[in-house]
Amino acid sequence: MQFSYVIIDNSNFLELLIDSIKEFDEFLCVAVCKTRNEGIDKVLKHKPNIVFLSINNSIINSSESISFSLLSELHEFMDELPTIIVLSDTKEDAFEAYQRGVSGYLLNPIDRFELRKCLMRYQKKHKQLFNETISIKSNGDYNFLRFNEIIYLKADNNTTDFYLKSGKIVSAFKTLKHFEKLLPFYFFRIHHGYIININYVNRINLRKNSCYLFDNNLVLPFSRTYKESIDTIILRIS
Predict the structure, then answer these.
(1) CB-based burial label for 107 (10 Å; 0-12, 13-18, 19+)
(2) Which residues contact 90 (CB under 8 A, 6 or more apart)?
(3) What tens digit of pLDDT does each residue of 68-94 get?
(4) What are phi and psi of 42, to 5 degrees?
(5) Which residue in 55, 48, 42 sits closest to 100, CA to CA?
(6) Is residue 223 over pLDDT 90?
(7) Cβ-contact 30, 232 below 8 angstroms
(8) What confidence tier does 59 reach under pLDDT thresholds 50, 70, 90?
(9) What sections of 165-226 are H helices per DSSP?
(10) What angle do CA 68, 72, 75 make, to 5 degrees?
(11) Residue 217 phi/psi, 5° resolution?
């Protein structure tokens, strides 16, 4: 089971934060943002489970300061905010952070033990919210597929083929766009005809616009339209 997160941070501690969270395989980074507007855009687009929001003084560019008002703006567009974990250089911001309803507070530089406790607390509270299967109906026949068994999906006119780890192919009379909305965040569309489970990605060749899956036995093309998805996959794997 994995959870998605976005980092909104333009402090000198950003690289340390990224390296610290990478130790936890259950958490998948879907975006790293250094400005307020980019942060809002990525949260609205990816709807992550967690947002690491840096409220700090040691910023790279003072004209790009990130503040608590970002939370108010997100409230305008989202019925329910993701879990917010605030990062700060000093304890003075902690009181205001909890008044605004954030779920966690960490001091810079990140203490990995405190980060571990924060993430494990989140897992314990939220693991029961995730469904692990998807139901595929075809002519009265129902297939219940586990997400971790799906390698990729392929569009075939107005139908979609699910390619499974077992070698089985299950067809559904719905479009790829329909299923794109139902899949967990670790499924990425890389082409108008393909959605992949990034847990099966072994290699990405940018020169050949190719993505290699399942011990390099499968090679799928990706298009420039979905280059941002490829960048996110590379960020996670690297």
Answers:
(1) middle
(2) 57, 107
(3) 788 888 888 988 889 999 998 888 777
(4) -70, -35
(5) 55
(6) yes
(7) yes
(8) very low
(9) 176-180
(10) 140
(11) -80, -15
Both tokens assigned to 228: 């941002």
> Residue 65 pLDDT more than 60?
no
Render pLDDT for 178-216 as a digit per residue (tens, 0 to 9): 998 888 888 999 999 999 999 999 999 999 999 999 888
For strand 201-205 and strand 210-213, is the pairing parallel, antiparallel, or unpaired?
A: antiparallel
Q: Are strands 210-213 and 218-221 parallel, antiparallel or unpaired?
A: antiparallel
Alpha carbon distance 188, 44 (integer Å): 16
Burial of residue 43 (CB within 10 Å: 0-12, 13-18, 19+) is: buried
**Residue found by looking up tokens 């719905």 in the block:** 174
In the numeric block, which tokens belong to residue 121?
């607390």
Sign of CA dihedral 91, 93, 96, 100: negative
Site of tokens 């840096």 = 54
Phi and psi at 196, nearest 5°, equal -120, 155
Could you give the 3-state DSSP secondary structure of residue 34?
coil
The DSSP string of 88-115 is ESSTHHHHHHHHTT-SEEEESSPPHHHH
Q: Output 158 or 61, whichever has higher pLDDT.
A: 158
- The answer to whether 35 and 64 have CB atoms below 8 angstroms apart is yes
* Amino acid at position 196, single letter: I
Mean pLDDT of 49-74: 71
